[in-house]
Amino acid sequence: MDELDSCACSGGNLPRFVQPVLLGLLVREPMHGYALVQKLEDTGLFGPQPPDMTGCYRMLRDMERSGVLETEYDRGDGPARKKYRVTALGRRCLNRWISSLTSNRDHLDRVLALLLSARDADAQDPCPEADRAFMEEVRRRALSGALPRREDVLRLLSYAPDSAQTAFLGRLARQTAREVAGDRAGVWAAFGVDAAPCSMSCAFCAFGASWGVVRESHEWAQEEIVAAARRYAAEGASWIVLRTTEHYGRERLEALAKAVRAVLPPSCALVANTGQMTVEEIRSLGRAGVQMMYHALRLGEGRDTPFDPAERRQALRRIGEAGMELAHLVEPLGPEHSDEEIADVLLAALEAGAKVCGVMARSNVPGTPYGGAESVSDARLAQVAAVIRLCGGVNTPHVCVHPPVSQAVAWGANVVVVETGAIPRDKKEAAAEWRGFSMDDARALLLRHGYVVGGA
Ligand code: SF4
């Protein structure tokens, strides 16, 4: 136990903003208390812990007393149940929450920026000169186009995420984003086209047939996907990603790709995230309009998955051989992954020429073997993003972080993800943007950190 664990700086006492979230859920549709608590859990705002039922009901009662909610009894089959709805006063309250949270977010960003720059300038705890020189050298090599040395990646990852060295690394990474990407940033808009129980049963995936989380297959209609792609492109997405399972079929994916490509502007790249393919199959997808493939050697490949890591590396090479661009994140990152594992996956991505690289945290989906496990900290996620930015240099203009951790964006990540549809990191599909993170939110986050959004 750390001596600061009970101090306010641990963030343990930060409010969870339950009241505005309840208002936000109920303004979409009136609900019974039980359904509401389920929806509250699905927001992901409570981490692996389910929301406290008693506390939620107490808050609903208080909100009803204050006039922002009203109730009626639903007398359908079974016992009558209370249904909550938002009143006119509640709608005003919701709007005030939006303006208060927006101004608080700006204020928090400014406080964070002040604290970060103060830490960087702290005369008592500066980044040692030897570490500064080392990081400058790693950056110089990466900007000359050289791939990073494994021992250099390991040294960068070995710094504590809250150390002066990592603060310096983050600052250097942000400078690198300025030089390599011209401060341009983009949104990766992904659509999960289908969900189906998958016989591979990777330990971190909600689709794994062995876990029984996703029991039935479901596909989104082509018109829905085309409409979403058109909307995301109009809102400034730089990539539209079609994510399909092995059940969807290559020919259908090609037909879908053609239909989506037809509605996209030239500035918006079409990406396919699907199973392993031969060089000719990848070329055929290219003829259908796909310009980039997402594929990854995952952390724990061969241990948490039944795939042979050597075969995954082959699959990465085939994407390059087919003349297709590659996107490859370091994923799914958990707190237990060693520096060595992270370095090896990162080097696989960079050696395969990933134009979009980055890091994605593991979502510990209840019902999968990782349900209830610890999540990687935002600080570690930001550190890994900064390492990728520094080591990727001129070869990797786009560094992604998922979920969209503000610190990672401050440290050089210039791509964030908005996703809809079937999500292998959740037990339910997302009819709207996953966890409520919209194109507007993505743009606002990138702009707040000084990027120009679009055309990444
Ligand atoms: S990660 Fe892919 S291969 Fe593994 S269980 Fe999920 S859908 Fe199947």
* Count of β-strands: 14
The portion of residues assigned to helices is: 40-55%
CATH topology of the largest domain: TIM Barrel
In terms of DSSP E residues, the strand content is 15-25%
Question: What gyration radius follows from the Cα positions, in whole Å?
Answer: 23 Å
The coarse silhouette is: globular
Count of domains: 2
Strand order of the largest sheet: 4-7-8-9-10-11-12-13
Order of helices and strands: HEHHEEHHHHEEEHEHEHEHEHEHEHEHE
List the bound ligands: iron/sulfur cluster
What does this structure look like?
The chain is an alpha/beta fold and 456 residues long. It folds into two domains: 15-101, Arc Repressor Mutant, subunit A, CATH 1.10.10.10; 177-453, Aldolase class I (TIM Barrel), CATH 3.20.20. Helices cover 44% and strands 15% of the residues. The chain is built from 15 helices and 14 strands. An eight-stranded parallel β-barrel has the order 4-7-8-9-10-11-12-13, surrounded by eight helices. Strands 1-3-2 form a three-stranded antiparallel sheet. β9 (292-294), α11 (309-321) and β10 form a beta-alpha-beta unit. α6 packs across α12 and α7 packs across α13. The chain is globular. The model has no long low-confidence stretch (mean pLDDT 90). Iron/sulfur cluster binds next to loops.
